[in-house]
Amino acid sequence: MSTTHTGVPTALPHPVPAAEYQACPVTDVLQLLGDKWTLLLISLLGQRPYRFNELHRAVDGISQRMLTRTLRTLETDGLVEREVFPTVPPSVEYRLSPLGTSLLEPVSALAGWAVTHHGEIVAARGRR
Prior knowledge:
Elements: H1 18-23, H2 25-33, H3 38-47, E1 50-51, H4 52-58, H5 64-76, E2 80-85, E3 91-96, H6 98-102, H7 104-126
Antiparallel strand pairs: 1-3, 2-3
């Protein structure tokens, strides 16, 4: 596969082999970011650290189980750091890691694109 200096493919093989698609780092990261809650949690944690219950209250509709699973995935992938405080009962605080913080700019660019072009997307859907 030929690439530019950024590593973004400029030409894909035809057909794209399934194994190559699954091994692609872009596919891997987009699958992580494309779930229902990840971008919202990254955006919130980009503002400041949160305790678990604060996050749970800040995200209407997320279950405790799904919040726990999403935070664990983000922690496993190095985007979120978890700090346990020795209180009774123990309290836990989550913050973006430096890697997670580096994601804020591209996510912000994508959000800006979405806001700018959302009307066009909705109009295109209406034409079908």
